[in-house]
Structure formats: structure tokens, C-alpha cells
Specification:
Nucleotidyltransferase, domain 5; globular; 7 strands; 284 residues; seven-stranded mixed β-sheet
Amino acid sequence: MTAHVVGIDEVGYGPSLGPMIVAAVAFEVPTPETDLWRTIGNAGGPVRDSKKLFTQARGIASIEPTALAYVGRLCTPASHAELWERLSPDPRTAPWYGDLAIPCAGPRPEPVALPEGVRIAGAWARILEASEFNRHVGTNKAELLFECAADLIHRALEALPGRVDFHVGRQGGRKFYLRHLIRHFGAVFVREERRDTSTYEISRGRIRFLTDGEDRHFLIALASIIGKYVRELSMRLFNQFWSARIQGLRATAGYGTDAQRFWRQIESHLASARLTADEVLRRR
């Protein structure tokens, strides 16, 4: 009897520029306990925490082959637009998405060869640009992160038959999730609540939240790679949009003091670009 297993992780929770992305990827496997790291290994490129796989020196090329090798089992996106349309319902209204025909860079890898009894069953994402992020964030960024993860769980349950087991990277430092799960899924049974693992049963499966999940579960790591790839494509367009307006502007990854530097350089150009601060800079 086959089973469906889903990994969910966030990318871009901390920066003040660029999108926050929560990504999910689903596999059909022989049993819920199938060890995909052992079963697949690095057949489609190294699968590990995207923060460890990505390097500034190589940029997007450090994660693109792995992301596309797996996504290529579902579709063959030739552009950022096709990839986004496959993954996410979120709007692409920001002006830096005017050139959505930008190609997925680099040589296209062959889709990963999967063992018998294993297949990719789906991939989804929530991609929140600053405008959407600010509209929904309220007073608590961790709440918004959970809402996005819950939305992906619902989407996976709608798409996949039978029982589905979810493995989710820890949500914004939160350790316990019962109250939030009841709000979204009704009856919930607590299996365990520990500092590093919290596990809950819902009507059609199990949801497990893991600290350092990208190091502990293959599908959480793969979700982080897909999310990171989409964020890097988005940041490429974001930087191209502003560098076309400000000569000599150095690109940013959107984090920390470098994001503050970038914001100071572009702030006076918002009006000419017909943008407000809330459409560019995240409030939290």
C-alpha cells in the first residue's frame, strides 16, 4: 500500500526586502516511513537545507539544478511565470514582474530518476511579496507564517487521496501548535509535544513539526530548496527593476544592514516608480 508524504518549509521569513515563501512538496512512497535520503540519495542533485546548499559565490546556480530536477517531474517551466503559475495562487502585481518571461537560467537538468514505487505527487507555494505580506501580517509574523503553512496543508489534502503525513519545519520559534491546528482542522489529537518535535493527528493524517527540519527530513529540505529557488528568481527581477532606475546600484539579498542600505538608495525613487513604501518594504 502506498502513502503520501509532504514536506513544508519557509524561506525569507527574516528579510525586509523580497518575498516570504512557504513551499510544499509531496511524494508518493511505499510506506510513510520510507527514508527518501537513503532511497533517492543525491540522484537529482544534493538535497539538504537550502541555507547550506546556496552560496553567494555561485548564486542561483548553486540550487537551480536540484530544484528543476525535481520540479521537472511535474512540469518543465521555461520561465519564472510558468514556474509561479504551477506553484502558487498569489498575485504577481509588483512592477518588477513585468518581465515574467525571464527564463529559468542555466542548462536544464534531466528530471530526477526515482526508484520504483516513489513519485513526486505535487508541489505548491505561497509567495508573499511585501504588499501581500504587509496586508496580512497584522501584529504577529509567526501567525502569518502558520496561516500560509495551513493553507498548503489544505491544498495538499484536496489534491492527494487517502491519508497524508506532513513534516513541517518549525514555525517561527513556536513549539506547540494545538490551538492553531484546531482552528484549521477541527478535531486534533496530540501525539507528542517536545522541544524538538511536536506531532498531531488530524482526520486524514499526521502533522509533525520539526526543529532543524531541513536537516532531519528529506522533503522539508527539498521544500526549502524549491522555495529558495523561487525567492532567488524573484530577487533577480527585483534587483533588475531598481538597477535600471538607479545607476550603479548594488544588488541586495534583502537581509539586515544591506537591505537598509538598499532601501535608503531607492526610497527617493518610489514616487517615480509609482510605488508606496508598503509595496516594497516589509513592516515586520
